[in-house]
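User: I'm putting together a small comparison set for a docking exercise, and I want a reference complex before I start. The sequence is below, and the ligand is zinc ion. Could you produce the 3D structure with the ligand included, as structure tokens?
Assistant: Of course. I'll restate your input first, then give the structure tokens for the complex.
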Amino acid sequence: MTSLKTLFVAVTTVFCLTSVVWADQKCDYPVTPVKFTDVRVSDCFWRPRLDAARDVTIPDCFQKCEPTRIPNFARAAGMEQGPFKGIYYDDSDVYKIIEGASYVLALEKNEELDKYVDSVIEKIAGAQEEDGYLYTARTIYLKYPQYKPLYTPPGAGERWSKPVGNELYNAGHLYEAAVAHYLATGKRNFLDVAIKHADLICNTFGVDKKQNWPPEHQEIEIGLVKLYRVTGDKKYLDQAKYFLDLRGRSEGRTFPMYGRHYQDHQPVVEQTEAFGHAVRAGYMYSGMADVAAMTGDESYVKAINAIWNNVVGTKLYVTGGVGSTRRGEAFEDSYILPNDTAYCETCANIANVYWNHRMFLWTGESKYIDVLERSLYNSVLSGINLVGDHYFYPNVLDAPNGRERSAWFGCSCCPSNLSRFLPSMPGYIYAVKDDFVYINLYAQSEATLKGVTVDGKPADVKIKVETKYPWDGSVKVTVLTDGAFTVKARIPGWSVGEAVPEVDGNRLHTFINFDKSQQPTCAADGKDVKREPGYFVLSGTWKAGDSFTLNFPMQTLKVVTDERVKADVGLSCIQRGPLVYCIEAQDCVVKETGKAPSSLHALVLADDSPLSTEFRSDLLNGVMTVKGTLKECVQEENGTVTTRDVNCIAIPYYSWANRGLSPMLVYFPRTVDAATPVVPTKD
Ligand code: FUB
Ligand code: ZN
């Protein structure tokens, strides 16, 4: 029966590459995202980033895996001899890059890439043990005792090591990649590896089975749900739920709970606060949303709602970054958001996008897209340079000596995560539910939205968006399909003066100079336009070619942060549209000296200091700059503090560190009192 189901799904999947929904799967998210394969982005902002991901990042990441990570598979497969090299969970990087490459293959034919990916999959399949086990650190270790490493990698001595081997984290990435590859190519060579592995997991972990502990690093939950979607085999969904429900409980486990750092201190349905390792947490909340959507279990939703309030109300950087401390790569207590030591791991910021997207799919509420957009345009994009081959692991907001992105890392989770995330970005732009068409993000694109109820029947809706967002807030939407349906165009929170969603009557970040008279508008002839929280709602009967225009005035705003965040007391930063700005010292000139200032912390950005904007096509692949005169505070010999003018150009935060080492700062003192004056040198 199962194999018949699988065959059915295989056939439908290969030919349509649309949402694969097995008949037994009754539950899903109420809102359906429009797949990235159905969206053609053509704008000046995302198109170059998507091209760079395809042409630079993915090949670059594969190349970086050639010396160790890919040979590890070949060695485990016995295709070549040699020891395991690298970090025990390095296999996951290769899986993530294959996931990204599969997204590229889903969009366009590329024989060379297809062949290369198959050659890597051949090694991976060869590395899989007879019973489905796949973890090169251990297989190599046992296969070649002559290459005994200096230390035994976790998981190498014994299968299913806990709580450090990351074997189940690797597994999650294996499943996500295999599903992506199958959907893109229709080939089963990788999917069969994943299924064999997942079957081993299902036979090994569970009540009355040999192993009964949850993963130390969440990720397998997301992967199992994807396997469930594509195969229709409910045991994978049950397994994901089993892993989630085991957390924070000692009954049913022979291995003790790992504690708060691992989100294993309380049953997941009772958790209300984000604690511990931020990537694990983000993947867990995403997995909870997935399982809730597939099973209809609302208790997960109650928990992730409470946790979301905690994060958005107290633990979210203005850049959308999360996980403020390097210690354990973790969430700190509420309101602890240091700028210079901000960790904000790129993977955690990507996980925040995944989680918020799922929260939207549950609710259809735009506040989740507000948070998603903030992370996406700021702390995710800052993880990669404009060329696409250098990466930040932490994303600080204050770099007194400047910083440079690295070409690669020993632990390269972030580059490989970017390589799979970026190509899928167009999948966050649109969504559908019944007769609703959601436009959530604004990027010039043409899309086919499948499964919309048009004139009461399921149909495709084609739509075209023309815009220069995020540089300009005007958007023209042309509907290319006839019929009656409703368009919901998101009104970004920033465009109505809400820097971040309000939680329990408070906002963690607030605009201080928002001009309320500049409100978003929607002009549509002959359509009924309503305004709901977070959306313009346009209903009526459309004729192909009908269009409407949106305008989200982009004011240059100053943002202050809740005073319980000690690091930001007396400071403000700049935001325009969805973009947070920063200043690099190389873009500042002290009028008196003609030189760059020696410390950005001495520069006052007064609340009333005028700022102007200028689009610079010659800078950083084209950016809207914000220009202003800040005041440098100087400590005079007599103890007084004087100020002198500094002409500064602020650039979008995502684009910093692309022109060599230069000090960078996001938050600036609002007054002389909050500044750290410089002591002038004698020369
Ligand atoms: O442990 C796997 C990945 O490496 C984590 O998600 C990152 O935080 C890094 O530790
Ligand atoms: Zn990472």
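DSSP finds 15 helices and 25 strands in the chain. The CA atoms of residues 407 and 614 lie 32 Å apart.
User: Thanks, that's exactly what I needed.
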